[in-house]
Write a structure and sequence with these properties.
Number of strands: 9
Strand order of the largest sheet: 3-1-2-4-5-6-7-8-9
Number of helices: 7
Shape: globular
Helix content: 25-40%
Distance between the termini: 28 Å
Strand content: 15-25%
CATH architecture: Alpha-Beta Barrel
Bound molecules: iron/sulfur cluster
CATH topology: TIM Barrel
CATH superfamily: Aldolase class I
């Protein structure tokens, strides 16, 4: 598997202390991406490992998974390497290790992968397909069908919306989309725009005014809470 980075992290990548693997390659081209070095499958400073090498490492690290921790796969987009990811998730589950993934939600294999994932974190960047495509390079048809499958089946879901001025900073479309969904096992997190990754871009960085105001964040929180959505911060 192509791994860009790996290491322990607490709190932002699922519950407890977790061994986090950043997988190389993403099918989206989000203009605000804070990990642009992870986008292209054959660029960057990744290293290759076999599934068994990673499994051995994760299994040997069990003592470190305190507070309900475990192993998280993120990216890039971890589902791009889904054959190996699936194999590794199955091994980890069979070994009793808690698993999580962070995904852009676009994989046609996500429902199958999610069977072996204890804690699923999924982005929902925009409700409108054309706008989603404009800013990420890809439409949102599969993201929505995956999201709706998970919500309809009441599975645990941690949805993340990156809030970016001029891209998706009006809550009304999100409220319209979520208001008739069953959110009883879902939580939602707002991720206000930041520029931590801007200096890593070797291609043109096109977001010029992405910061959202405190007022916008409050408005999102109010309107989403009003339709019964549980908001979280990590
Ligand atoms: S989905 Fe994530 S990793 Fe992929 S381009 Fe967008 S922000 Fe970057």
């Amino acid at each position: 598997m192509k791994i860009l980075q790996k290491g322990f992290n607490y709190s932002q990548d699922g519950p407890g202390n977790r061994l986090v693997y950043h997988l190389q390659g993403c099918n989206f081209r989000c203009k605000w991406c804070s990990n642009p070095e992870s986008m292209f499958a054959d660029e960057g400073g990744f290293r290759e490992y076999s599934v068994m090498e990673l499994f051995d490492e994760a299994s040997r690290s069990k003592m470190m998974y305190f507070d309900g921790g475990g192993v998280t796969f993120t990216g890039g987009e971890c589902t791009m390497q889904y054959i190996e990811l699936l194999e590794l998730l199955k091994l980890l589950k069979a070994d009793g290790i808690h698993t999580a993934i962070e995904t852009n939600g676009s994989s046609e294999h996500l429902i199958e992968i999610a069977e072996y994932v204890d804690y699923l974190i999924m982005d929902f960047k925009h409700f409108d397909c054309d706008t989603h495509k404009k800013w990420t390079g890809v439409g949102n048809e599969t993201v929505k069908s995956n999201l709706e499958y998970f919500l309809n089946n009441g599975r645990q879901l941690h949805i993340r919306i990156p809030l970016i001025h001029g891209v998706n900073d009006n809550p009304d479309g999100f409220v319209d989309y979520f208001k008739d969904k069953d959110m009883k096992n879902a939580v939602l997190e707002l991720l206000p725009y930041h520029e931590y990754g801007k200096d890593k871009w070797t291609r043109k960085y096109e977001i010029t005014d992405g910061f959202v105001s405190e007022e916008t964040i409050r408005l999102f929180e109010e309107k989403l809470s009003d339709i019964g959505i549980t908001l979280v911060k990590t």
